[in-house]
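User: Design a sequence. Structure:
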């Protein structure tokens, strides 16, 4: 179990953790919307309703092969009666439930699978549930964008290995020292930087002394896609014996052409979303 994110809903900061490869939302944080001083009682009152028990029972029977149906039947019989109170801990211990978990430590509290958390949100307030779902969806969209960027960054790294192999096999004579080889690698890396960004890595650092990382860490997704393609093409050009000067000219033209295509695709997609 590990923390993955936080979101703000109606003034409440709500934690989300990963459990069993699923998102679990903090009911303790959500309960603060109703009573910040007695979150445990808020959760217990909800768990003691027939509405909550019926939903939890269905969810567990579908998703949990070890769910104790006998104990569930006993709880369901008493749910909703006067004076009946069921805590999250009692529900978990009696039924072997997995949809709700309680944890101690840094991210301690009562958490529930997102399906269950949304139902709890309905009980708290229909408006709260609406904003909860909207914020959760926004976070998942941001997460997918980040995954896409990371995947493209990794692709660029993989292609870089192909690129350096071509340099090693075709541009670096065996008699060069390791230090001399590194100069050649650096030179070829900057060939791509100049073709793509119009400057070397050193020039970028001099222009951006306040930034950490390197020029490619601040590249857009379109620039990373273009760089990935250029690394492959440069490897082909090197294997074909094309001079560095000619390769730079070719790659710069390719970068301009591909960036125009990618920007036009983005523009068309944006116009479709607006419509």
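Assistant: Done.
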């Amino acid at each position: 179990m590990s923390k993955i994110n936080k979101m703000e809903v109606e003034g409440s900061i709500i934690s989300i953790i990963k459990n069993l490869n699923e998102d679990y939302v903090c009911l303790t944080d959500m309960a603060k919307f109703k009573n910040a001083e007695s979150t445990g009682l808020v959760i217990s009152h909800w768990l003691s309703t027939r509405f909550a028990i019926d939903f939890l029972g269905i969810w567990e029977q579908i998703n949990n092969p070890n769910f104790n149906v006998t104990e569930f039947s006993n709880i369901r019989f008493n749910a909703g009666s006067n004076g009946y109170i069921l805590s999250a801990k009692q529900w978990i211990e009696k039924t072997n439930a997995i949809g709700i978990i309680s944890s101690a430590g840094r991210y301690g509290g009562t958490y529930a699978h997102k399906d269950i958390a949304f139902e709890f949100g309905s009980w708290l307030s229909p408006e709260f549930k609406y904003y909860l779902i909207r914020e959760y969806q926004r976070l998942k969209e941001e997460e997918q964008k980040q995954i896409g960027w990371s995947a493209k960054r990794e692709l660029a790294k993989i292609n870089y290995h192909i690129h350096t192999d071509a340099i090693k096999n075709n541009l670096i004579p065996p008699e060069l020292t390791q230090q001399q080889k590194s100069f050649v690698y650096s030179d070829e890396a900057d060939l791509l930087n100049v073709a793509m960004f119009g400057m070397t890595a050193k020039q970028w650092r001099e222009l951006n002394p306040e930034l950490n990382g390197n020029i490619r860490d601040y590249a857009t997704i379109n620039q990373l896609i273009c760089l990935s393609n250029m690394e492959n093409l440069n490897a082909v050009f090197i294997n074909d014996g094309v001079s560095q000067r000619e390769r730079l000219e070719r790659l710069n033209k390719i970068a301009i052409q591909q960036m125009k295509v990618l920007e036009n695709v983005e523009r068309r997609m944006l116009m479709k979303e607006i419509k």
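The longest helix spans residues 126-170. The chain has a mean pLDDT of 83.
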